[in-house]
C-alpha cells in the first residue's frame, strides 16, 4: 500500500469520527478506560488542564452567544464535560490510593496543588 493511500485512508477514517458516527462511542470508551486502567500522573495533569480549559471555553461561548440557538449543543457538551470530570475524579482517586505512599509529587502537580 502506498504511503499517500495510507494517509488518505487515515484521514477518511478520522473524518468519519467528526461526523458523529463513531465520535461519541469512542469518547465514552476512552472515559471508561480512564476509570479502569491506571493513568500516569503526567497524563492526568494534562487531562485536568484540558477539562478546565474546556469549561472556560464553554463559559465564554455561553456568555457571548446572542441567541439561545447559537449554542444549541450546550446540553451535550455539558453532559460530556460532566462525564469527563467524573472519569478524572475516579482516575485521580485511583492514582492517589495506589501511589500515595510514594511522596507528595506521586499523584501529579495539578492534584498536589
TrEMBL record:
Transmembrane portions of the chain? 20-39, 46-66, 72-91
User: Domain of life of the organism in this record?
Assistant: Bacteria
* One GO CC term on file: plasma membrane
Q: Which InterPro entries match?
A: T3SS_FHIPEP
List, in alphabetical order, the GO biological process terms annotated in this UniProt record.
bacterial-type flagellum assembly; protein secretion
Q: Which UniProt keywords apply?
A: Cell projection, Cilium, Flagellum, Membrane, Transmembrane, Transmembrane helix
Q: PANTHER family annotated for this entry? A: FLAGELLAR BIOSYNTHESIS PROTEIN FLHA-RELATED, FLAGELLAR EXPORT PROTEIN, MEMBRANE FLHA SUBUNIT-RELATED
Q: What name appears for this protein in its UniProt entry?
A: Flagellar biosynthesis protein FlhA
Protein's organism = Pseudomonas aeruginosa
Biological classification of the source:
Bacteria, Pseudomonadati, Pseudomonadota, Gammaproteobacteria, Pseudomonadales
